[in-house]
Specification:
- It is a single chain.
- 82% of the residues lie in helices and 0% in strands.
- By secondary structure, it is mainly α.
- The longest helix has 20 residues.
Length: 193
Amino acid sequence: ALDLANRRFKSYVQEGINSFKKKEPLYALVSFENALMVARQMETLSRYEPQLLIYARESAYAAGRYEITARYAEDLVKFWAQKKPDSKDQAEALVKLGLIRARMEQYDRAIPALEEGAEIMANLELEDLQVSALNDLGVVLENATDYDRALAQFQNAADLSKSLDKRERLARQYMRMGRIYDLRMSQYAKAKI
């Protein structure tokens, strides 16, 4: 039975990868879900769970199945919270979950995930990832029409970019702040500065 489970697992993963490469995300999703089911039942295969969750999440997203995407994104956050809490892996999973929720226009659920991911990155001093997370959070807040908080996140990202001497990133942050002042808040004078 163990040998059969291992062969089926390997077959599911290979089918999933091949389907994903052929731009057939629904077939890939089914294969990765089957592989995930086997991995969760077999102790020897459980180490593959996080990668399978990523594959399933990305396949569902590519297929436009956002509720399923969110479910796998949440499962990955829970996995890392249990296995490696407050880690880079958990932070990245939180940011991805937040972006998925934002794509679904569920801003009330997206923003806390992005904030928590950015906070973990700050605590781990992962500055480059933190700048990206703050930027993502700013964009989501802007889309949620919370312009003052969006400006604050873009300013935090700009300050961090400046301290890291990342001029191109700094310029992008200032452009985003200018866009909010000019287009969103009709404060052209502030946007110009």
